[in-house]
């Protein structure tokens, strides 16, 4: 019976139970030579415990109950229950997968405790009793398993039992298996308590490698950067000698394996890969040292540290997820080491399919590089695996995940033919499955990756091919093939492709088809935010008439859908796409439509949809839309939006809606755009700039005026019809110069600023004295530029100054003199272009024009009348520096 009870099979358990029954039957018929003892029943209980069969714990319990019943009926002390018999049944429950196993084991333990407390010293529970129940709770999924285990552990002291390392180890295991956030701390506390007892003289309580491994195990089950770092330090101290601050314990294979796992599970993927890989190298170095030492002393004992493929695969998987630039090289280096170990005789370390899948995953996630084509390399690995598996290496036979990784590599490669190659791979999967060379056919996941590859391809046939693949999936699903029915990710890939291919009409139809499927009960087709956003973006990018209104219609459907399905709602992108569309339109009502969409989003935000908080960029988009449309009220509308921003910040807690320089420049640009039709534009723009200057002077760096700020206000004055425009432009230029002198590093008075002042003067249309003043200002600025080493005139400057000389009502002599001066300097600088020459023709009289074109260089000019002279007839040297 003893021999049969050690075999781990149902047949062995049945055999032991039959032998037990035979002995009992013999004894009952009067065979005095035969005696049944508790040990016989324990053999039967242990046999069922080791069998691994479903219901084995229940059968062990029945045998024990029958023994107790017989003992009470016959008063036979030889079959009286003992601590050992109870421990055997508890052990059977601790190995059981029954959800109530831990509670059953605890019930047995409490029977022991109650019997002992009632005076039965034969049934005193021991350390194994408690350790067994703690092991049962370690496997349990009960919520109260931690509290129950701690209560049982405290009971050991109340029973006057000496501390036992088995119970402490079992408690640590329970903490580790529980996986609670404080599990590592509690496992460490148990370890510290064991060390205290050991230092106090209880030599049996010295923590072993098992205890340290349980701490590592608890760290591996609570993934965090802190857990990974603690596991790394713990392993390092296990390796160090005591005299160097290490623990008085030697790490074994499990120590390294669990430490590697703790590092690999860290959410910081880059750190996880680095730490796990470093510990793998430690494991390899330790295994080499042990192997060399065993050979030196000719030891036959099994080594404490050996290499296992699981540790290698864990590290490969961690590296494959880290997205580090060198991840492909690192996984290939590990694969080469594994192959070398196999070549040296350790066949168990030959890379298996999981190893290669990790390599393929690393390639799929790798950043595109010029020196390597990971899509090609992935495909070559796949071909190698297929070839070798057909030659008999079943451990590397590709599976569905293998093909998915290769498809992902193709999808992310960006190669022109990547989609075509992905198409071939999926067809190859279908063929391999039909020929029984692949266990799984391509499913919805593979087809979705293929659709994404087509969506990214930019191919002119991408949209048509995506629709063909979608139809193919419908057909396969309709004939009963499992797991190929399109889901929302599948549809989203097609919508993405249609959007990029400018097939907005078909995209809209597909979206409404998804809505119809969902309403008919197909919850896998339920559209999400991406689905609606794809169609909205498709219309927003379209130049077709009415596409903005159609994008708004899709947004309306989106909002209606949200009312019925609160889990799916629009995000800010849906609104931003439409606003951007209108901001690019030249239609006069387009900016109003953009502002309407913005106000809709703000209304939703105010009503509680906090994820729809508007951004400053949305406001600038609408402001710029008014500017690009040359709207007559662009400035006033932009300033109204500025007031709305401040209201949202003040009254609705939009703390990020803080006006800054770029936002203010959008308002200034709107005033600059509308200045020709808005008499107050220049004044309002300058007032806003003055507010910026005051805020900056008071310490608000976010409103620091820059060169563009001053330039936009100058532009507003240049288009203004105010009689004060020239003088205001000059004053603004001087303020700009002062700001630069006072240390505003974002302001640089450049040629364009000076030129804008001249342009402002050129377009003064007012009383004669105002125009004379404007001419004097223009001449003064022009002279400053001629004498400046930093802001020399450009072709634009010369053209505007000559135009000012011709337009402003000054004396003919002053005008002619200034024109001649400017033209000659322009020619000397080699900056004569069509713009300057055209302005010269408009400003100079025939007499002045002829005088400017006289001289040896123009002796071959047959007709020097304005209308007959082309710039190309003039010396090239005059225009040598024109671009």
Automatic annotation (TrEMBL):
Coiled-coil ranges per UniProt: 273-300
InterPro entries for the chain: PPR/CCM1_RNA-binding (IPR051222), PPR_rpt (IPR002885), TPR-like_helical_dom_sf (IPR011990)
Pfam families in UniProt: PPR_3
Keyword Repeat: yes
Keywords assigned by UniProt, alphabetized: Coiled coil, Repeat
Gene3D superfamilies in UniProt: Tetratricopeptide repeat domain
Superkingdom, taxonomy of origin: Eukaryota
Alphabetized PANTHER family for the sequence: PENTATRICOPEPTIDE REPEAT-CONTAINING PROTEIN, TETRATRICOPEPTIDE REPEAT (TPR)-LIKE SUPERFAMILY PROTEIN-RELATED
Protein name in the entry: Pentacotripeptide-repeat region of PRORP domain-containing protein
Classification of source organism: Eukaryota, Sar, Stramenopiles, Ochrophyta, Bacillariophyta
């Amino acid at each position: 019976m003893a021999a049969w009870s050690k075999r781990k099979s149902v047949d062995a358990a049945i055999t032991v139970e039959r032998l037990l029954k035979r002995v009992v039957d013999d004894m009952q018929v009067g065979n005095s030579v035969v005696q049944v003892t508790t040990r016989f029943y324990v053999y039967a209980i242990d046999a069922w415990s080791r069998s691994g069969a479903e219901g084995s714990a229940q059968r062990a319990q029945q045998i024990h109950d029958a023994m107790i019943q017989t003992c009470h009926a016959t008063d036979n002390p030889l079959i009286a229950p003992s601590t050992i018999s109870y421990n055997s049944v508890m052990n059977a429950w601790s190995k059981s997968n029954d959800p109530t196993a831990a509670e059953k084991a605890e019930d047995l333990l409490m029977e022991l405790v109650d019997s002992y407390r009632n005076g039965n010293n034969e049934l005193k529970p021991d350390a194994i009793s408690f350790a067994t129940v703690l092991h049962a709770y370690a496997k349990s999924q009960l919520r109260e398993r931690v509290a129950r285990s701690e209560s049982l552990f405290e009971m050991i002291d109340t029973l006057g039992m000496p501390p036992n390392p088995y119970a402490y180890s079992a408690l640590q295991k329970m903490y580790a298996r529980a996986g609670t956030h404080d599990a590592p701390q509690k496992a460490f506390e148990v370890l510290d308590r064991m060390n205290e007892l050991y230092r106090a003289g209880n030599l049996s309580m010295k923590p072993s490698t098992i205890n340290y491994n349980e701490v590592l195990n608890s760290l591996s089950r609570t993934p965090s950067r802190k857990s990974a770092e603690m596991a790394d330090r713990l392993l390092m101290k296990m390796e160090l000698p005591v005299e160097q601050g290490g623990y008085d314990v030697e790490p074994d294979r499990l120590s390294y394996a669990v430490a590697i796992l703790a590092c690999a599970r860290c959410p910081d993927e880059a750190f996880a890969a680095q730490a796990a890989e470093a510990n793998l190298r430690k494991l390899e170095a330790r295994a080499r040292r042990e192997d060399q030492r065993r050979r030196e002393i000719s030891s036959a004992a099994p080594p404490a540290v050996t290499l296992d493929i699981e540790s290698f695969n864990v590290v490969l998987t961690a590296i494959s997820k880290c997205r580090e630039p060198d991840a492909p090289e690192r996984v290939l280096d590990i694969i080469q080491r594994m192959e070398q170990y196999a070549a040296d005789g350790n066949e168990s370390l030959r890379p298996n399919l999981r190893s290669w899948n990790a390599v393929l995953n690393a390639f799929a996630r790798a950043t595109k590089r010029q020196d390597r084509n990971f899509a090609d390399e992935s495909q070559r690995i796949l071909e190698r695996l297929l070839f070798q598996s057909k030659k008999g290496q079943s451990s590397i036979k590709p599976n569905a995940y293998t093909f998915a990784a290769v498809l992902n590599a193709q999808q992310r490669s960006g190669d022109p033919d990547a989609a075509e190659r992905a198409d071939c791979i999926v067809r190859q999967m279908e063929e391999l499955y039909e020929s029984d060379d692949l266990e799984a056919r391509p499913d919805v996941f593979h087809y979705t990756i293929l659709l994404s590859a087509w969506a990214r391809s930019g191919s002119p046939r991408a949209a048509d091919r995506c629709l063909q693949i979608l139809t193919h999936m419908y057909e396969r699903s309709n004939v009963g093939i499992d797991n190929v029915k399109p889901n929302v990710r599948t549809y989203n890939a097609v919508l993405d492709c249609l959007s990029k291919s400018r097939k907005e009409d078909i995209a809209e139809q597909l979206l409404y088809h998804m809505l119809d499927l969902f309403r008919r009960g197909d919850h896998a087709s339920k559209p999400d935010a991406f689905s609606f956003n794809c169609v909205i973006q498709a219309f927003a990018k379209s130049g077709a008439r009415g596409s903005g209104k159609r994008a708004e219609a899709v947004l309306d459907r989106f909002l209606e859908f949200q009312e019925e399905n609160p889990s799916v709602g629009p995000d800010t992108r849906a609104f931003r796409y439409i606003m951007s569309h209108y901001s690019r339109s030249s239609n006069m009502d387009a900016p109003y439509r953009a502002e309407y969409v913005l106000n809709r989003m703000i209304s939703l935000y105010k009503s509680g949809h906090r994820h729809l908080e508007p951004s400053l960029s949305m406001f600038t988009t609408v402001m710029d839309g008014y500017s690009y449309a040359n709207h007559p009220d662009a400035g006033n509308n932009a300033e109204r939006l500025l007031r709305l921003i401040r209201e949202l910040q003040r009254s609705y807690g939009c703390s990020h809606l803080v006006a800054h320089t770029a936002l203010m420049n959008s308002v200034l640009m709107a005033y600059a755009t509308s200045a020709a039709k808005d008499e107050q534009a220049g004044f309002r723009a300058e007032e806003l700039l003055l507010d910026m200057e005051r805020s900056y002077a008071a310490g608000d760096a976010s409103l620091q005026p820059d060169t563009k700020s001053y330039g936009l206000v100058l532009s507003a004055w240049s288009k203004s019809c105010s009689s004060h425009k020239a003088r205001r432009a000059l004053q603004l230029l001087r303020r700009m110069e002062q700001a630069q002198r006072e240390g505003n590093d974002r302001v640089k008075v450049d040629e364009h600023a000076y030129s804008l002042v001249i342009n402002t003067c050129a377009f003064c249309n007012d009383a004669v004295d105002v125009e004379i003043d404007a001419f004097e200002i223009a001449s003064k600025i022009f002279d400053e530029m001629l004498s400046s080493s930093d802001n020399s005139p450009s072709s634009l400057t010369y053209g505007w100054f000559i135009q000012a000389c011709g337009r402003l009502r000054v004396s003919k002599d002053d005008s002619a003199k200034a024109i001649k001066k400017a033209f000659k300097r322009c020619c000397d600088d080699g900056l004569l272009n069509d713009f300057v020459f055209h302005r010269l023709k408009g400003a100079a009289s025939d007499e002045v024009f002829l005088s400017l074109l006289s001289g040896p260089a123009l002796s071959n000019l047959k007709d020097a009348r304005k209308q007959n002279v082309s710039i190309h007839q003039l010396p090239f040297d005059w225009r040598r520096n024109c671009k």
